[in-house]
Amino acid sequence: MSEATRAAGQVENLTLLEKAALLTGKTVWETHDLPRHGVRSLWLADGPHGVRKQTGAADHLGIAESQPATCFPTAAAVANTWDPELAEEVGRALGAEAAAQDVDVLLGPGLNIKRSPLGGRNFEYFSEDPLLAGRLAAGYVRGIQSAGVAACPKHFAANSQELRRMASDSVVDERTLREVYLSAFGTVVTEARPRTIMSAYNRVNGTYAHENPFLLRQVLREEWGFDGAVVSDWGGSNDVVAAAAAGGTLEMPAAGLDSARQLVAAVHDRRLAEADLDARAAEVLRLVADAREPGTAPAVDAAAHHALARRVAARSAVLLKNDDAVLPLAAGTRVAVIGDFARTPRYQGAGSSAVNPTRLDSVLDLIGSSGLTMTAFAAGFRRDGTPDAALHAEAVEAARGADVALLFLGLDEIAESEGLDRSTLELHAAQTELLAAVAAVNPNTVVVLSAGGVVEMPWLASAKALVHGYLAGQAGAGGLLDVLTGAVNPAGRLAETVPVRLADTPTATTFPGRQRTAEYREGLYVGYRYYTTAGVAVTFPFGFGLSYTTFAYSDLSATADAATVTVTNTGAVAGADVVQVYVSRTTPGVHRPVRTLAGFARVELGPGESRAVTVPLGDAAFRHWDAATGAWQVEQGAWRVLAGAHVDDLPLAVDVELVGTVPARTEDVPKRYMTGDVQHVPDEDFAALLGRPVPDAAWTGPLGANDALGRMQTAPSPLARLAYRILAALRDRAERRGKPDLNILFLLNMPFRAIAKMTNGMVSAEMVDGIVRIVNGHFFSGAGATVRGFVRTRRADRATARRLRGDA
What residue ranges define each of the domains in the chain, with the CATH number in brackets? Predict the structure, then answer.
């Protein structure tokens, strides 16, 4: 008997209330159990780059302590490996650690597309390209689930900004949504079969993601064949009844029994089909049936996982500049180590993914065993950017007496965090001024960068070499030293574009959306799709990365199904390359970027060695979403297949004639969407792309349950305005200290209705309505409604709990 059949049979034995209870959390991290039916609770835990199981005070923001676990490099780092097999190896380690801690569902990987380099959570995501993001995330999912733990890829979908993330509406045309923001999830679902998936906080085209029939029923379940459980992001459920009808399974964390009563009432009132409730309950029961029994997983070899984390960090590092082959550093090289990050590494981002590492290496800890001779260490600067002349002078003096100055620069903790977007792509001036001064006294200055994303680099000329390590995890220091000394030949390739300046990005004037909506006016032109089409110069292009050897490409051949190219290591040392294949349509047709990534392959070669590499293509490389037919189509005509080292270095090209599924056709869209001129899209052009009027973005009228608490700034109630000022003051104080206050950030971006979803039943939906009335200036009627709601909810909870226990 299949698990699906067994779960369906089990559902028949449950009462309506028991089925409803399965669809909402019991605690911050646990699902409801049904002891009299032998259904145990499941434990869910964060885990994009390390398990975060909290054993004491529970929260979802990474504040309370969690069990020690290996902190691997973040997804933004691992993406630079372009290696799905290595991603799967990381996934296996994550799954093994989750199983050893009796975690049933690991909440990751994150694979949202990096719409803007300002995205506050970009360090948790792989790429600006959906093919690369999808293939790497699929590797993670396969690895995690091989250990008997359910993976939960997130956040589905169009979840691109942190500002008002729980109340914002992502307004995006269907073609862009399908080709850019859903595509990676489709790859993961169809190739790796995750047992769960996490819905996003935001609305998508007017409907919350967790109750969006287009996303959850039409695309996810009907088109992709997903039959698992859809888990809400923590506090991301809006209407539990609408969610169940649309395909949303589990409301987390713990909304109390009010949600269960809403589901039962909806079935009785015929607002929810019992078949939909049964389907959602069966999804939870299958998840329970598939879970590993607690206490059965083998112990984890922490030392082996630390060694893996070091290997992954080295493979993730990207060598961006290496003038005069200053790297690798030979044994005995006298180096001055400069920069606070060498002493206190910036190795992961802040928020729900924050891991309590099993150990943490620093460059100062390990440089003695690297073969290098450290002449001096100088902190050089304060992390928060506060000028410090003494630290600056000490570092310059240290650099004078060394063969090479190793300068460790990066973004501080407040720059990148869940809950807030970045405001700039600049490094602190204290760091860039120090670089100029150090380079003036020691031309052999090597910069090692720690950041979860890209930064502007007007200072690049001052660095003889540059290694971007991203956020490299607990063993990152060792991995970076391996690259600097040549123990590992760098093979990282950028999974995102490094723009010259923020103003050059396609969303420079629109990100983040600051009112009700986040308008995706740029359409298809995300990342390199924009820069290559619009002809905008960049500092480093998508796919770029240097090596200590060189590679050449020859003998490209291609069909509609695959491309084959020969890669040769033309240098003197062994190394790894990533051959990248792009496609470009040469016949006129519907608007699209001038070239898009169609496939890639990592290849390791000895000196002088050549190998023919075949990269699969197929319809997915050439297709577009055709809104008129509601289907994927491939235009008939001539296409060019290009191969090379990165998106701007494609020396080989061959033309392919495709039969296609439809004739090439002209398209009635604004000209800017043919040319990539999308930085300043007027309403009429965006409306033409959407195929409907642009929704009103302005915050108007009284506050509602779905408005963010941050809107209390202009609320009618003086009490509400005072509450906002207190929250804002706490936020600002934390920023001055250089450490984000995640609770405050969450509250300011949280809608009022989430109060009922995050308080384990202490607050009901009825009470939220009363609170909103108070905020809108109706204190007495609102207070009365809140008190009455509290009394009714407590009374109803006691009765519901008795029924669930079978006492009544």
Answer: 3-290 (3.20.20.300), 309-494 (3.40.50.1700), 549-664 (2.60.40.10), 709-805 (no CATH)
